[in-house]
Structures are given as structure tokens and as C-alpha cells.
Amino acid sequence: ALGLVLAGAGYLGAARAFHGLPDVGGGDVAGRLAHGLRRAATELAAGVAFVARRDAVRRPLLAVAGNRLLLGAGVVLLVLVADERYALEAPGYGVAVAAAGVGASAGTWAAPLLDGRYRPEALLPLTFLVGAAAAVAGAYSTTLAVLVAGVGATVFAVQVLRLLAGALVERTCPGEVRSRVFSVFDLLYHVAFIVGGLALVPLWSPGRERALLWLLAVAFVATGAAVAERQRTWPFGTRSPAGAAALARPGGPGVDTDGAGVGRRATSRRWAPRVAALVAGAAPALAFPATDLWPLGAVGLVPLLTLVVRAPAGREAVVRTVAGGAGFFVAAHHWLLPTVGPFALVPGLAMGALWVPWGWLAFRFLRGRPAPGALVAAAALAPAAWVLAEYLRSWEHLGGPWALLGATLWTRPTLAAAASLGGVWLLSLVLGAVNVAVTGALVPGARPATRRAGVALAAGLVGALWAYGELRPAPAQVGTVTVAGVQPGVVHGSAERFADHEELTRSLVGEPVDLVVWAESSVGFDLDDSPAHIERLRALAADMGAPILVNVDARRGAGGIYKSSVLVDEHGTAGRYDKMRLVPFGEYIPLRPALGWMSSITEAAGEDRRRGDELAILDVDGLGIGPLVCFESAFPDLSRLLAERGAELVVLQTATTTFQGSWAQGQHASLGAVRAIETGRPMVHAAISGVSAVFDAEGHQLARLGNHETGVWVADVPVATGRTPYVRAGDWVPVMCILALLAAAMVAGLRAGRRPARVDHPGGSGAPALAHPVRWAAEPTTRRVV
After folding, report:
1. Residue (of 417, 383, 388, 415) closest to 401 by Cα position
2. Please, are residues 334 and 663 in contact by the beta-carbon 8 Å criterion?
3. Is the pLDDT of residue 602 over 70?
4. For 37, which DSSP code?
5. Residue 485's closest CA among 670, 657, 699, 651?
6. By the 8 A CB rule, do 158 and 108 touch?
7. pLDDT at residue 396, as a whole number
8. Whole-model pTM?
9. Contact, 81 vs 210, CB < 8 A?
10. Most CB atoms within 10 A, among 209, 227, 247, 399?
């Protein structure tokens, strides 16, 4: 308060002092002011017109504006998160301001040093990667320290971008218009920041900070790529003489001889390897149920990788990768074809598109005669790109995390034990690296040293998985809970389903059970409006001496249709959980106004189900039960959050009768083993028509009822305590993969943007071979509009 009062007094004193100064201009003050404003507007318009005409000036200005726009959104998001989560007062925000100041100062010092080694045009898009990395780190850990450090790093990059862009503008602008252009520069610089902050506010709500940070990361990468494309810098080309010479050399960096350099005969022969890639991509699908050829998870990608790395050019490698991804999707999800028909082509191509970075990196490092170092780089970066693809498609609106490579180890708990360390993502990363290493050892033309390195790397990775599984301590058991379930099979009609579940449950009366689990959609009416059915369930629970977890699929009151897990004991309803992750097209249609017509020609949902808002922990005689519904067992984060919040047993209720007798039911049940290992919590998978299964905290199967069986099942389930590293740390593996790829992109961009080496001129010493050296002379910070 004292500081504000003193500042206010200082402003009043300054106003009084200026009021006493003599009038210099003379005449009408208002007229002179109007004239000055008109002239300023005219000069600014002239600057805008000049910028619009000159591409070399417009590009760096738009790059600065884009980065400032995203920075403004990030800073406002930091303020909102800090206010909502940490209740920071003025000193807390001062920390963020200080971090921004440190970042700006460091950027001011770093810009001339970077300009001495790299071309400014090449550095402009790379500054966006810093903001992307900061947003990814913030999305992983929204702690105040990470968010503040992220703002500081992003401001550093923006300051470097601003100074380099200013130098480029100064170099390309004639002196008579330079001040006008810099007026436009400054206007864009400040207005973009404000617009970015204002645009973020409507998107904000408590709990959405991670989603918004991921959105910011994607925006940073996309904008940086757009800047690189406009600048024709890495990875879209190069403007340096050295880079142009490299492009001109056959097989040089970035060369793509997929056009005029390839004759018509070669073009006609491309389709054979593309079709082969389509077929080869399907091989890893055999590692999942029902075939369960689990070794294909470690080597099933080798045939496709071999076709990709032997492609004649990068463009052809990308085409083969897309074909392989489409083949994998169709093979792993072939049970969807009777339901979605030809529409399966769209997600198949999307899958292939997500595989492109993986295939391109493998091609980049393993083509020709790769050295051992190139194999190691490929085994580090290509699997990181694979995990990135799996992580991206794990977004529920893109189909969800079905058929992840790491899940192929579900029948081998020892090898899959590493999921407790880094989730299924760590298993996918290791298996992806084994596939790359085996490819490097087998690809035709590889050097002997590379083959030996590939064999050693593959064996070492598999050995590390086995050693971790053997040596890690088993989850501490604190007791046993007896869980029973019923599987009536395919039953049509809500009344019949309820009656069949009830009848099978009565066959368990007298059995010493602690919990009875019914399947998804076992109750087809709103229990709040059905006192008679509540009474029947209450009486049944009293006869059993145990609560019953039913699943309601019905319209709730005057609202929409919910899918809910409801716990009923001898006293009535004891708890409820509403399903949060819905099946695209099965339970809702994305963009229904545009795609709603699909419900008339497919089995897509005629009416969107409603979503729940929060996970729930239901109490069963002091035991914490974490319920999930159907599709939700595919998402590692949900079961992890349940374990983090105190669930001691995770229970999934599902109904896959639409795909009765297909591979889908076995694939779905197998996910329970992986979720159990990740969380260190036993997992119950209760299905209405199979497959029902129970897994202990280490992923061992305790009970199973196949998709052609009906009846009841009972399992004594050991209850474990403690939290696995994955529960404590979360999805750190995908985040580290993304950061590694961003770092690799930064290194590649810097290498491509390096200035040409010094050359010795006749009769003089070596001097930089620069056509347009950038001047870093001191100049006034305030420019006058001329």
C-alpha cells in the first residue's frame, strides 16, 4: 500500500511539473493534436502497406506476432491457474514477472551470440519449439515452479525471436520507411499479446488447464512449422548456399528423388511395396487376443520397417508408413467392419498419418548402410515417435488407446512388470526400440558392426524388462476380498436382463462373498423412479449379505441417458458413478449436426449419452472400490487416478454383445491385466456376455469366463496397498518422448541453420562469408515516426 501511495504521489508531482512547462508549439493545442494524430495514422498506414507488399518483411513480423499471441495466452493461463489453485497475491505474481524479466534479459544477451553462428531465418521457427516444450512440461506438472519456469523460457525464446526479426527487418527495409515498419512491428508485438490473453479467457474453467496447455503446445508446433514453411528453412528446405549444395547432391540431406529423378518404370513398381506394407502392417495385430502371438509385439514391426527404410526416397517412405498404419488398424479392429463398414477407411488413414514421424525417423537413420551410432539414434527417437502416435490417438475423440503395442505383453506379467514404472507407454517404448534394433540388425546392406549392435541392443532391452520384473518388490498384500459376478450372456430387453442377473445372483446365496458385480446395462431403467426394483435389489443384497454393484443404462428424470455404476446394499442406494469417457459413434456422435446422418445407415448412437463429471470411490465395508464402465478400462489415466485417490479394487462393468464372438472381447479383457500392473491394484472385468476376468495386482489371472459361457464366477482377490511409480509420476514416458523429439528437432534445425564456415580471402584474413551481415549496433529504444 505504501508503495502504491508513493507511486501515485510521484505521478501527481510529474503531472504538476509538466503542467508548468511553456507551450512550445503555439496556436491551437487541439488542432495540433488532431493534425499529429492524422499524420501518425497516415504514417502507420504507409508502414502497413509496405509490410503487406514485402514478403521478406512480412514473414518475421508475423512470426513475432504469432509467438506473442501464444505467449499472451500462456501468461493469462498461468495467472488463472495460480489464482484458482494457489491463491497467490501480488508477491506471487511478482515471481512470474521476475521470471519473465530474467528470460527477456537472457534473450537479449543470447540473440547476438546466436546470430553469430546461425542464420536468423533458420532460428525464427525454432523459437516456437521452446514454447511447445514449456507447455508440454506444464501439462505434465502444473506446479507453480514448472509454470513460472515455462513462462521464463518462453519469454526468452520470444525475446530472441523479436531481436532476430528486428535485425532482419532492419536489413531489408530502406531507411526512409524503416521507422514506419518498426511502428507496425511494435504495434503487432503488443496487440498480439493482448489478443492472445483475451482469447484464452473464454476457454478457461477450473480443471481444464492441462487440456489448454496441450492445446498451446500443439499451437506452438503448428505455428512454428508454418513459419518454417514460409521461410523455407528446416525441415522444408534451406536458403544457405551450403544447404542448397547439399540438396543438389544425390542422397544429400533432405533429398527427395521421388519426382523427376524416378522414371515411369520405377513409378509403376511402387505399388508392390506399398501393398506389401499394407499387409506387413497387420502383423503386430496378431500379438493381441485372440491369437496372442505375443512375441510379435517385439518383432512384428520389422517387416514394415524394412520396407520403409528401403524406400528410394523420404516421400515413398511416408507413403509406405501410412499404408502400414492403415493395415494395422484394419487388422486390429477388424471386428468393427460389420458395424462401420467403409467408414473404417477414415480412422485407418488417420492411424497411418500418426505413424508418419515414426516411419520417417526410421528411414532417416537406417537407410543405406547405417552406422552403429545411427542405429542407436533410431532406437531412441523412432520409438519416441511411436509412443507419441499412441499417446495422441489415446484422446477419446480420436478413438481411444486401443491396441497399444505394450499391451501385447499382458500374458507375460514378468515382462509387463515395467508398466508399474512407466505405464503401458514404457512397454510400448521398449518394444518399439526392440523392433528398430532388430530391423537394424537384419536390414540388407547393414554394416557388420551395426548388426552386432542391433542384436546386443535388442537382447539388452528384453533382458532389462525381465530383470525388472524379477527384481521389483511385489505389492504388499493386506488382506483378501471375495468378489462374485454373473454373466447371463446375450439377453435382449431390459426386463429380461434384470431378471437373469437377479436369478443368477440368487444362486450365490449362502456363498461367503463381499461384493457382487453385475455387468454394464444390467439395469435398463432409472432406479430413482423405480422403487419396486430398488426394493428387489435391496432384498437381494440382504439375502446375499453383500452389496451389489449394478449398472444403469437409462434416462435419468427429465435429463438425458446416463450409464452409471450404482452400489446397492441392504439399506438401498449407497453410491453412484456416471461414465465419463464415451465411445465415439457408439454412445455419441462427434459433431452430430454434421455427422448425425450416420446413425441412419450404421449402428451409431441415435441419441448422445450424457457424461459424468468426476471419478468416484465407493465404500464396501471399508474397502475402496473404483468403478469404471466399458471403454474406460482402455484409458491408463482413469485407473491410475482411482488408485491415487484411494481405490483398493478397480471394477469394470462392460457389455460387448455387439461384437459377440469376435476378438474385441478378448482384447478388452486383456486390458485389465495391464491396468492392474500399472496401478498395483487388482482389477475385475465383469462382462454381460464375456469375457469376464479377474486379475491380481501383478497381472496374474485369477478367474475367467469366456464369451461362449454363462453363469457365475467367484474369485478370492488379494488386496494390495502402496502406490506404484506410475501412479505417483503419471504419464512421464510420453512427456519425455515429446520433449526428446522437440530437442532433436531443435538440434536438427540448428545444424541446418548454421552459418557457412569462414573463408580466406586473397590478401586478407578469414572473414565470415555472409552476403547480408546483421548489424547489432546500439540504437535508441524509442523510434520517432517520420
Report:
1. 388
2. yes
3. no
4. H
5. 651
6. no
7. 82
8. 0.87
9. no
10. 227
What does the angle CA 389 – CA 390 – CA 396 come to, to the nearest 5 degrees?
Answer: 110
Contact 44, 181 (CB under 8 A): no
Phi, psi values for residue 776, rounded to 5°: -115, 55
* C-alpha triplet 102, 103, 106: angle, nearest 5°: 85
- SS3 state of residue 480: strand
Nearest to 552 by CA among 513, 581, 579, 571: 579
Residue 255 CA to residue 314 CA, distance in Å, equals 8
In this structure, the number of other CB atoms found within 10 A of the CB of residue 769 comes to 14
Q: How far apart are CA 408 and CA 674, in angstroms?
A: 9
Nearest to 199 by CA among 68, 59, 86, 93: 68
Query: From the centroid of its chain, how far is CA 579?
Result: 22
Residue among 418, 438, 425, 356 at smallest CA distance from 394: 425
Q: Is the pLDDT of residue 476 over 70?
A: yes
**381: which DSSP letter?**
H
Instruction: Give the pLDDT of residue 492.
Output: 83
The residue type of 289 is P
Report pLDDT for 562.
92
Q: What is the CA radius of gyration of the chain?
A: 31
The number of CA neighbours under 13 Å toward the Cβ of 634 is: 25
Residue 594: the pLDDT is 67
Report, in this order, helix, strand and coil percent for the chain, each rounded to 5.
60, 10, 30
Q: How far apart are CA 717 and CA 481, in angstroms?
A: 5
Longest dimension (CA), the chain: 105
Tell me which residue has cell 423412479: 529
Among 380, 381, 460, 391, smallest CA distance to 425 is for 391
Burial of 646 from C-beta contacts in 10 A (0-12 / 13-18 / 19+) = exposed
- Residue 85, SS3? helix
Cα–Cα distance list, 470 to 297, 303, 442, 465, 553 (Å) = 20, 31, 30, 9, 43
Closest CA to 436 of 312, 276, 307, 298: 298
